[in-house]
Amino acid sequence: MVFDFVDVGYLASNFTESGLRQEIHWGMIQATVANQFQDTPYETPEDSFPYADYITCCQQALKDKRQIQTKTQPRPIPGRVNVADIKAKADIVTEVERYTRLRKSGNHFIGRCPLHEDKHPSLMVYANQQSWHCFQCNQGGDVISFIMAVEHTNFRGAAAILGG
């Protein structure tokens, strides 16, 4: 029995990296056991399993799997908006203060909601969570959703306003 590229491909596609490492380890244990009991009258060397070839096949499958995973890393697509970068650059307190006055109250900020006529402050801005919530109109979210609501725009428009 000889292992070839078809077997390597099968192992690479059907086993995880940890599964392949376990198969290599299992093959080494089985090869050690087979070498210790090589003089048994029941098995001939032709009938024994080729553990060394199996281990080599698993090692090659592990290499191939790693190469495939490094080739398929997601690359940034030109023109795509990176949400994490936008949120990291834009401070929610600064952005909300462009539309309404905020005052600090404990570890959050309070102000009148610019989305509706507000006589009493109902807008809460949580700087540590980078989020907001209005208790009167029951809207909330992150800095992008705030700009989308205030400017009546879509996601791309909000990203453009925030400099994304």
3D architecture notes:
The structure is a single chain. The protein is α+β, with helices and mostly antiparallel strands. It has two domains: 5-71; 83-161, DNA Primase, Chain A. Helix content is 49%, strand content 12%. The chain has helices at 5-14, 17-36, 51-71, 83-89, 92-97, 143-151, 155-161; strands at residues 102-105, 108-111, 123-126, 131-134, 139-141. The protein has a five-stranded antiparallel β-sheet. Helix 1 (5-14) packs across helix 3 (51-71) and helix 2 (17-36) runs antiparallel to helix 3. It is elongated, with a radius of gyration of 31 Å. The relative contact order is 0.10. The mean pLDDT is 82.
State the gist of this model.
The chain has 164 residues and is α+β, with helices and mostly antiparallel strands.
Going by CATH, the architecture of the largest domain would be Alpha-Beta Complex
Mind telling me the CATH superfamily name of the largest domain? Answer: Zinc finger, CHC2-typedomain
Number of strands: 5
- Profile the largest sheet: 5 strands, antiparallel
Beta-strand residue percentage: 5-15%
CATH topology title of the largest domain: DNA Primase, Chain A
Low-confidence stretches: none
Number of structurally distinct domains: 2
Shape: elongated
| Biggest sheet strand line-up | 1-2-3-4-5
Q: Note the run of SSEs as H and E.
A: HHHHHEEEEEHH
Number of helices: 7
Q: What structural class do helix, strand and pairing data support? A: alpha+beta
Average the pLDDT over all residues and give the rounded result.
82
